[in-house]
Task: structure prediction
Amino acid sequence: MQLLLDLGNSRLKAVLYQNGQFQQLAFDSVAGLLKLPVTAAYLSSVATEQKTTELLQGLQAASFPTTQLHTEASAFGLINSYVEPQRLGVDRWLAMLGAYRSYPAARQLIVDAGTAVTFDWLEENRHLGGWILPGLQLQQQALLAQTARIHKAQQLMPNLAPGCSTSAGVENGALAAIIGAIRLGWQTTPAQQLLLTGGDAELLKSYLPDLPVLVDPFLLFKGIAQYIDN
Ligand SMILES: Nc1ncnc2c1ncn2[C@@H]1O[C@H](COP(=O)(O)OP(=O)(O)OP(=O)(O)O)[C@@H](O)[C@H]1O
Ligand SMILES: CC(C)(CO)[C@@H](O)C(=O)NCCC(=O)O
Ligand SMILES: [K+]
Result:
């Protein structure tokens, strides 16, 4: 059994991997992970050096070793399109590896909706490139921080209706930007399948009923599993 870790810009996610199965872990702190009966841990981090080092140091007290994974120019037959391959976020690299391993399709569009929303097009074993947008929360935070009169009085459920308050306008606008970008991406660089992952995947899916959407919360972890099983 292995422990798979995804340190994002907002939070840490942990998953247990055993016999090809993934199980999301609920935990309060890194200390809660130290006593797990695992043989090894694998880390994907897009957070700062400092946060990454802190996590790795916290894990040194564990009985199992931790390996940090990094983006590569190519691995397991998958080819990174970046001019400077190592600059592609390791979360994107791993999600693509997961998609490549689990969902064969001539062309797929992978959208990871977290702090940022990333788009990556995969054509068989080749990354075509992607887009990076601010996520649902980050868009709203940017507006609040950079304008004098945009305040958020309440947290609503975002939808695509015209908003009748600042809060609704900002929330619905953020959702519209992401749904609009997905539809535009789907039009300009068509694919057979739209793979959604990240904290906002289910919300986005509900606004894309006409597209062949598949939600997989474990996509990045399936990419990590590629490194374990090979
Ligand atoms: N329990 C939760 N905690 C935080 N955000 C959540 C939660 N459930 C759903 N969300 C939604 O998920 C989004 C964050 O996505 P996710 O958790 O995939 O990313 P993250 O860990 O915050 O950052 P990163 O993309 O860097 O991994 C937020 O926009 C929020 O709307
Ligand atoms: C875009 C994010 C923040 C998404 O988590 C991450 O993948 C990242 O920091 N990437 C580095 C920049 C890039 O992928 O081009
Ligand atoms: K992420």
About this structure: Residues 71 and 86 are 5 Å apart (CA to CA). Helices lie at 49-59, 90-102, 136-146, 166-188, 201-205, 219-229. The chain is about 30% helix and 25% strand. The chain has a mean pLDDT of 97.
